[in-house]
Amino acid sequence: MDAEEKRMILEAGKLGKKALELAESLVEPGALFLDVAEKVEGFIRENGGEPSFPLNLSINNEAAHYTPSPNDTKKFKTGDLVKVDIGASIGGYLSDNATTVEVGGKGEYSNLIDCSREALNRALSVLRPRIEINRIGQAIEDVIESFGFKPVRNLGGHGIKKDDLHSTIFVPNYDDGNGRRIEDGQLIAIEPFASTGIGMIHNGMGGNIYIFSGTKPKAKDPVIENFRTLPFAERWLERIKPDYKDYLKKSVSAKQISQFPILKEHKGAMISQAEHSILFDGDQVIVTTK
Question: What is the DSSP string of 275-290?
């Protein structure tokens, strides 16, 4: 990568970190999901970037993929376990980071929150140029199991490329035997998910987040121009298309747009998450969101 690409990757990481810190500070009893999302996404735009994806605010047994809908009235309640996940885009170069917050700070889930955070820290501590992917998963698994919880086995980290938030690399939360090595110049997200249950997630209902998935319309389309290849919120679409509900219905039916399902742990088990973005640049391993 050239110096300008690296600069934008690092800038996206710094802005993503600040956005996550802001989101964490806003999650409190009685706060509207919608207000938190709009403030955090607005903060990214005010500081020269765009959100890599809509702010995810997923509670309790939800692992990911809920963002408030337009006019959403949902509020945070004391004791909610909230996965807060956001990233920033600078010129199409992306970051992705996450944390878990227990609303009201009762401490009921302190061990579970600490578990995913410590698993992430352990994974970061073993990183080396050209490290095998399964070694990252093993480090995560060891910590989560030492806390008495289960790593979520069908959810994990991922590669990140320009304008592509989830590229082909999968970074597991356990040792899956994949000896493939991380290559020089790659940007990845490591995101341990810890569960009080069996460590498996399934798809729930849609979470108001969409992405282009099939053949795009040939005619000039402001939605494509605005969102291109990245996930977008129904809230964002409302601002540029008065008929956004019909547009979504027709586009999903035509398989041009897909809705992200809320990812839920089986049988109502609780989930925590922690995440950083990491750049492998020669002999350097740089956590861009730290």
Answer: BEEEEEETTEEEETT-
Marked catalytic residue, from 5, 28, 142, 166: 166
Q: What is the pLDDT of residues 226-277, one digit of tens each?
A: 787 899 999 999 999 999 999 999 999 988 899 999 999 988 899 999 999 9
Q: Percentages helix, strand, coil for the chain, rounded to the nearest 5?
A: 35, 30, 35
What the block records as the tokens of 97 is 């980071």
- The CATH-assigned architecture of domain 3-204+270-287 is Alpha-Beta Complex (3.90)
List the catalytic residue out of 62, 118, 191, 234: 191
Residue 158 known to be catalytic: yes
> Could you tell me which residues are beta bridge partners of residue 277?
189
85 is catalytic: yes
Whether 96 is a known active-site residue: answer: yes
User: Which residue of the set 85, 118, 141, 234 is catalytic?
Assistant: 85
Secondary element (H or E) of residue 183: none
Annotated catalytic residue: which of 158, 163, 164, 281? 158
Q: Tell me if 173 sits within 8 A of 137, measured CB to CB.
A: yes
What count of other Cβ atoms lies within 10 Å of the Cβ of residue 8?
19
What's the pTM? 0.95
| In contact, 82 and 271? CB cutoff 8 Å | no
Any catalytic annotation for residue 275?
yes
- Residue-wise pLDDT for 100-114, tens only, equals 999 998 899 999 999
